[in-house]
Structures are given as structure tokens and as C-alpha cells.
Specification:
- The structure is a single chain.
- By secondary structure, this protein is an alpha+beta fold.
- The termini are far apart.
- Belongs to the peptidase M16 family.
- Pfam families: Peptidase_M16, Peptidase_M16_C.
- InterPro entries: Metalloenz_LuxS/M16 (IPR011249), MPP/UQCRC_Complex (IPR050361), Pept_M16_N (IPR011765), Peptidase_M16_C (IPR007863).
């Protein structure tokens, strides 16, 4: 199902394309293996700031012309930043694909970071940070990274700090890009009804003049995890809690069974164990979920819930009780079958989104140099045994290995 084609230009930039005949929309983007973990200590928030500044001027376009180029034909231009990736991407009618390709190339490789725009966008990002801090259910999940990855770049907030964002200069952007941007760690990925030959022809037209840059960047691996419990008083009306611990890296063979375990525990289904035990049975929360994020050298389990302050201890105990069940009692054959079917259905539905598919293909090739087909993943899921899940639960769901971050209400 995931038949895709790859062409490598003489300068090392890879072009990845999947042809989908039944769509009129072309999704594409440059995905770069650069993220907030690659920032220097005095440049926190720079990767995310670059994401903003890419739309603020190139060698031949001002901000208005960048923003209007695709919007005027009904398309969309956007970007995102994570701990390990930056992506500039677009969605347009297929007849405007070349216009989209050229614009994405321009903002990725030819941004000029006008100083006047840096000052303007600095204020926008500081407002974004203030808005995010006013949303405790989002802020606590990000702050939990600093608890688990204390002292490591993975623990830094993607947005940076008020101090760091306020001090970044044009030279910081240029230095960061020169240190991290490399043709062997970026690619152009597209999903559309266009033939591969046309995509390659456009790539040769717009990317051939990009100079050859190959850098070997070493990321500092995360080690020496120490569990912590942190409680912070805030002027909020509800208590919020995140608990979790480091987990398997994205290349670990245990990643898929662990993902299934986390999905069973607190995935998007209303039948997750945490939702049934804490919300449906006791009515203590509105939202409770579990997530598993993977990085090249580690991973992270997070379990989040919000509840009344007086119910914080009880709710935490119920969550720990569910973790204990997974460590002590293997799934029955029907439970295991249901967990597998649910996960396979969710993965298949996720692939219905061509935009999501484009990003998944690009990220997977950057990280693993290949893309697993749904059938391959399904085969791995089908081969999971109850004992595998029990072993994993006892390896990474031990209570003594968990960290806790609590936001508790305080009157002001």
C-alpha cells in the first residue's frame, strides 16, 4: 500500500513521492532532521523562531507575497517544529503544484531574516508563549519534558524562554542553519496524483542549484534518568497531573508492542482502561490519556489528567492501579485480540489522510531510511503475545521509575 519512489539529486537532496490517483490535491513539503534539541544553550527557541521567520522574506519575496502566493489559489502554506524536525509544507490543487514547489524551495533555502521582521515576530512568539502558559493542560505536558530530561536538550521547551527569544539575532539564525542544515538530512516529500517523473523534473529545475552541503552532526544521547516528583502551585481552578518515564527509541523492536500497550492504557478510544476506570467508573476527570513519543535515542511515556484538587491523590492512585494490572496480569486471548484489532483500525484510518501520509513517509525515511507498509506493521502487531506485553510493562511501567509533575490550584 505504501508504494513510494525516491530519487536523489546530484547535490544529495532526496525526492520522495507517492502517487495517489484518486485525489486532486497535492501535499508536499521539505522535512528537515533539525529540531529544538539541536539548539545551543543560548539559542533556545531558535528552531521554532526559524519556522516563523521562513514566511517573513526571501531574496526575492516579501512577507505578503509569500503568504498570498498559495492562499490566492485556495491552497495552504504551513510549518511545524518538533524536538527533532522542522517541516515547511503546503496543500494545493494539483495544477498549482509547481507554484507550491517553487515557493517551498524559496522559503526553505533563501530566507533572509529581515531584522525588522525579527523584531515584529519576536512579539508574536512571546504572545504565543503567554497564551500557551495560560493553558495548563498544554503547558504541563511540555514542562514534564524538563522533569524527565532534566539538563538535556530534549528537556528544553520548543518555544524557548522569554529571555532567550528576546535576545535572538539575525546572526543566530544564520549560524544555526549553517551548523545544522545538510542535504543528507533533509528531503522533499509529496503525495499527489502527479507522475513521479514530473516531480523529479521540477526538483531538477528548482533544487539543482542548491550547493552540496554534507555535515555530520552528533546529537547528545539522553542518559542518567532520575525519577522526580515536582508540585507547582498555580492560580488555576483544577489540579493537573502528568506522570511517566523514558521509553524505547524509535528504532527499538519493542516500539510497536509498547505503542499497543499505551494505546490500550490511554489511547484515543473511549474504551481505554484509564478512561473506563477513572472517568466512566468514578467520574473524576473529563480528560485522561496516555501518549508515547519516540526520538532517535529514547522515548517518553506521558499520562495526563485534570481533576479537582481534593481528588488528585485518589485519581493518581487509580492510574497507578491500572499500571499495576498491566504488570501483573497478562491479557486474555479476547482482550489481546481486541487490542490488536483496535490499533490496526486506528493506523489504517490515519493513513486515509494524504497530508499525514506525506509527513509520515518523509519522517520515516529520515529516521529509519525506509517506510514500513501497513501490512508489515499489521504482521508485527498480529505476532505480539500477551507475555511480550507483560515483559514490557514490567520493564518500563514500574512505579518506582515514574516521574510526576503536578499543578495544584492556589488562591491569589
Amino acid at each position: 500500500m505504501l508504494e513510494y519512489q525516491i530519487h536523489t539529486l546530484p547535490n544529495g537532496i532526496r525526492i520522495v513521492h507517492k502517487q495517489v490517483s484518486h485525489t486532486k490535491i497535492a501535499h508536499s513539503g521539505f522535512i528537515m532532521d533539525i529540531g529544538s534539541r539541536d539548539e545551543c544553550p543560548n539559542q533556545l527557541g531558535l528552531a521554532h523562531f526559524w519556522e516563523h521567520m521562513a514566511f517573513k522574506g526571501t531574496q526575492k519575496r516579501k512577507s505578503f507575497h509569500i503568504l498570498n502566493r498559495l492562499e490566492s489559489v485556495g491552497g495552504e502554506l504551513n510549518a511545524y517544529t518538533t524536538k527533532e524536525k522542522i517541516c515547511f509544507y503546503s496543500s494545493v490543487l494539483d495544477k498549482h503544484f509547481e507554484k507550491s514547489f517553487e515557493l517551498l524551495t524559496d522559503i526553505t533555502f533563501h530566507s533572509i531574516f529581515p531584522e525588522k521582521e525579527i523584531e515584529k515576530e519576536r512579539g508574536v512568539i512571546l504572545e504565543e508563549m503567554a497564551m500557551y502558559l495560560d493553558t495548563p493542560e498544554e503547558a504541563i505536558v511540555d514542562e514534564f519534558d524538563s522533569v524527565v530530561f532534566d539538563g538535556h536538550p530534549l528537556g528544553n521547551n520548543i518555544l524557548g524562554t522569554t529571555e532567550s527569544v528576546s535576545s535572538l539575532t539575525k546572526q543566530d539564525f544564520l549560524d544555526f542553519i549553517n551548523r545544522n542544515l545538510s542535504n543528507n538530512s533533509l528531503l522533499f516529500c509529496s503525495v499527489s496524483n502527479l507522475p513521479f517523473e514530473k516531480v523529479v523534473k521540477l526538483a531538477e529545475k528548482y533544487l539543482s542549484d542548491i550547493p552540496v552541503v554534507h555535515q555530520q552532526r552528533e546529537r547528545v544521547p539522553f542518559t542518567n534518568y532520575v525519577p522526580k516528583t515536582v508540585t507547582i502551585e498555580k492560580p488555576i481552578s483544577q489540579a493537573h497531573c502528568v506522570l511517566g518515564s523514558p521509553a524505547y527509541a524509535l528504532s527499538d523492536d519493542r516500539r510497536i508492542p509498547y505503542f499497543m500497550l499505551v494505546n490500550l492504557l490511554g489511547g484515543p478510544g473511549m474504551n481505554s482502561r484509564l478512561n473506563l476506570a477513572v472517568r466512566e467508573k468514578h467520574g473524576l476527570v473529563y480528560t485522561i490519556d496516555a501518549n508515547y513519543a519516540t526520538y532517535v535515542d529514547t522515548g517518553l511515556l506521558t499520562i495526563y489528567f485534570g481533576t479537582e484538587k481534593k481528588q488528585l491523590k485518589r485519581t493518581t492512585s487509580l492510574v497507578l492501579k491500572e499500571l499495576k494490572k498491566l504488570r501483573e496480569k497478562p491479557l486474555g486471548s479476547l482482550q489481546l485480540h481486541t487490542a490488536k484489532e483496535q490499533l490496526m483500525g486506528q493506523l489504517a484510518m490515519a493513513e486515509e489522510s494524504n497530508m499525514g501520509l506525506m509527513m509520515m513517509i518523509g519522517k520515516s525515511i529520515l529516521d529509519l531510511d525506509r517506510v514500513e507498509s501497513l501490512n508489515e506493521i499489521f504482521d508485527k502487531i498480529k505476532s505480539i503475545k500477551a507475555g511480550d506485553l507483560l515483559d514490557i510493562a514490567n520493564d518500563v511501567l514500574r512505579e518506582e521509575q515514574l516521574s510526576f509533575l503536578n499543578y495544584v490550584p492556589v488562591k491569589v
